[in-house]
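User: Structure please.
Assistant: Input sequence and predicted structure:
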Amino acid sequence: MTEIVMQWWLAYLGVGIFVGFFAGLLGIGGGTLLVPLMVFLFTAQDFSSERILHLAIGTSLASIIFTSLSSIRAHHARRAILWPTVRQSAGYLVAGTFLGSFFAESLNPSVLAGLFVIFAVYASAQLILDFKPKPTRSLPKSVGMGIGSGAVGIISSFVGIGGGVITIPLMVMHNVPMRNAIGTSAALGFPIALAGGLGYVWNGLGNSHLPPFSFGYVYLPALIGIVIGTFITVPIGAKVAHSIPVSRLKRIFAIILMFLAIDMFINIFLTK
């Protein structure tokens, strides 16, 4: 059993190295890449199909806790994080994510995922076409920020992301510079992942369909491999993000966002 786990652990390490680079480059927690990769690897190991998605999402959120810390350090060193925005949003993000994690087992996320696909296509098109927001547009104040942050937290808990694919386009549309949007998104990923990860651990405790070495809906061998891999490559990605032109950075993010939206649409609505 231990030898088999070690063989798969090397695969998790490789996933962490791959995802960590994009997490640092684009300010995302990596969940949009981690969840489908975890589903693929867990399926290959013949884990119970009833809980594979929950296990993938829980493991993704738990890994983002550590990924975001590494990314925060790298972006903060370059003064790219808007800390007032982080402080204003953090509490609402935690509340939304923690609440969403408790409903994840009973609610069908297809509708939310469909809305996410629509938003992702719209946001990526705006970035590819270099949409210029009104010069007077800025981030909403307390009430609007609270509602928006809570919604981001709920959606993130359902699909196992750190929220970057939502928060970055929103900030850019409100005249936040791309590099600041990426750095701030990395910081916002921490409260999302912490609340969501704890929620998935709590809800998975005592579940008889989980594989050995699981802690709730978090698979520990995968978590350890992913965290080690991301710590290697997140600083590299963050360094690259501050060395390439902003216009190219926008296009990279938009193309990846569009690809993920199309992939999610196919998996949810066309694959039976």
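The chain has a mean pLDDT of 79.
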